[in-house]
Specification:
It is built from 4 helices and no strands. Helix content is about 70%, strand content about 0%. The chain is globular and about 45 Å long. By secondary structure, it is mostly helical.
């Protein structure tokens, strides 16, 4: 399997897992405090994976980054909307904000890691 196809499949599977887990009923168990960190991390990883897939194209990096950011942000907003349709979950604009911030962080992290000399070949 080509590396691009591997990362594309990984990114799509990851997004699917985030979607499914986001719509599952809450367990009701006590949380670990601020769940916005979970949103931030999940969407940072998602953006990083999508950047890894999309950056192989001939588009300039900024265009790719904006496209990935908007796609992941809209995905997060859609997840929040679908949560509002379930009886056990609710939508929260702060979750969508954490998703967007995480997405931006994932893109910046990808750029910083990609600029490192030793990492450039594998990213």
């Amino acid at each position: 399997m080509k590396p691009v196809n591997f990362y594309r499949a990984l990114a799509v599977l990851y997004a699917g897992a985030v979607f499914v887990l986001s719509l599952m009923p809450e367990s009701g168990s006590p949380g670990y405090g601020w769940d916005k960190a979970n949103h931030f991390i999940a969407y940072a990883v998602m953006s990083f994976l999508f950047m890894r897939t999309a950056v192989t194209s001939n588009r300039p990096f900024v265009m790719t980054a904006v496209g990935v950011f908007l796609a992941v942000l809209l995905f997060g907003i859609a997840v929040e909307f679908f949560q509002s349709l379930t009886p056990t979950r609710h939508a929260d604009f702060r979750d969508a904000l954490a998703n967007g911030l995480g997405s931006a962080f994932g893109i910046v992290a990808f750029k910083l890691l990609r600029n490192k000399a030793g990492v450039k070949r594998c990213l």
